[in-house]
Known about the structure:
The structure holds two protein chains of two kinds. Chain A has one helix and ten strands; from the N terminus they run E-E-H-E-E-E-E-E-E-E-E. By secondary structure, chain A is mainly beta. In chain A, the strands form two sheets. Chain A has a five-stranded antiparallel sheet with strand order 8-7-6-9-10, with no helix packed on it. Chain A has a three-stranded antiparallel sheet with strand order 4-3-5, covered by helices on one side. Chain A starts with a strand and ends with a strand. By secondary structure, chain B is mainly β. Chain B contains two helices and nine strands; from the N terminus they run E-H-E-E-E-E-E-E-E-E-H. A five-stranded antiparallel sheet of chain B has the order 7-6-5-8-9, with no helix packed on it. A three-stranded antiparallel sheet of chain B has the order 3-2-4. Classes of the chains: A mainly beta, B mainly beta. At the A-B interface, strand 1, strand 2 and helix 1 of A face strand 1, helix 1 and strand 4 of B. Strand 1 of chain A pairs antiparallel with strand 4 of chain B, so a sheet runs across the interface.
Amino acid sequence: MTTSAGSVEPMHAEQAMEFPYKHSTGETIGRFLAGLKEQKTIWGQRVAGQGVVVPPVGYSEIDASAAQDWVAVQDTGTVTAAAVVHRPLERLHPFAEPFAYVLVKLDGADTGFAHVVKDGLDKLKVGTRVRAVWAADEERKGHVRDIVCFRIID
Amino acid sequence: MHEPPKEPVKYVEANLYLPYRYVAGDYRARFFAAMKQKKFLGSKCSKTGKVFVSPLVNSPESFAPATEFVALEGRGVVTTFCIVNIPVIGRDLQLPYVAASVALDGADISIFGAIQECAPEAVHMGMRVEAVWKPDGERTGSFDDVLYFKPTGEPDAPPAAYINRL
């Protein structure tokens, strides 16, 4: 059988890949997360060559030396990068409405903390000041989403 | 407060969910439609005459368009294979099974196929096989319409017949 090219009705299939991960957090991130849950506090670590790193990893990425001391940083900060998700996908993204992934340099920290901004996307840019919105006491479970999102400070 | 709680959180759950809408496109849609008729649809390179299954719009070798379709029967030769002893999520074949590359008669490249109805140890390069299809009325126009390939019992093909069709 030989046929010539033309066009046929397009075919499509809805598919989903799902990866149910359970990450072991380790001591350093584990204590950082416990701080979110129990103390409503964002902790960083002072590290050789890097200043205050948030979230902390326990060592210096410059010379591999162990982190020095824990430092509580503010839950306010400055946006250093932003990417707006205009069409969120169900179950993949944290919100059904448009939102932005941001890096926030928290006051007292020297690195960017990756999180989300939900409201006022038209005002969002590098340099925008934001503040963490915390989940209620009974809802915090030791997860980065114990901070629901960051909100622009007017 | 000089440090975070001594007792760390032990783990976090992160469910990664990736929804896709796969669109077959013109050639792949034709390929699936042909499976309903128990045919493997290929396309022929207008320059070299090589036949690609599933059909390609252009030859990856000559870049020439492959506008002519060729419908192949489900008979061919095992070009290479492996015996699978480790279960794969989403595939419910009984272990061990054989995953093979099958060069269909008339095709210049191989397709994937499971080899059944023989012992895994009996599968070898050059073995002649044929497709076993889902019964009439149950085929939906999907790669799953081919259940597996089984040996035909014909004499083996010589290496020269398939060495360039892996």
